Amino acid sequence: MELPKDPMMLFSVINMKLRDCYSSLDELCEDMNVNKDELVNQLNAAGFEYSAEHNKFW
Q: What is the superkingdom listed in this entry's lineage (predicted)?
């Protein structure tokens, strides 16, 4: 699956995947073959921060 380029769509897709399919961001990135640092940087640039405690970006 190709991830959306739009930050809001990316935020939505990643949080949906984290909620429905993955117990951690590491698990999502490994399974989807996504560079974790790039993903986190993209979402941080849009104002979102990952919470491991809640397993979501906000």
A: Bacteria
Q: Give the pLDDT of residue 27.
A: 98
The whole-chain average pLDDT of the chain stands at 97
User: Per the structure, how many domains does the chain have?
Assistant: 1
3 state SS for 6-48: CHHHHHHHHHHHHHHCCCCHHHHHHHHCCCHHHHHHHHHHCCC
Within a domain: residue 2?
no
Within-domain flag for 33: yes
Q: Quote the domain boundaries for residue 24.
A: 7-57
pLDDT digits (tens, 9 = 90+) for 12-37: 999 999 999 999 999 999 999 999 99
Judged by DSSP in three states, 5 sits in coil
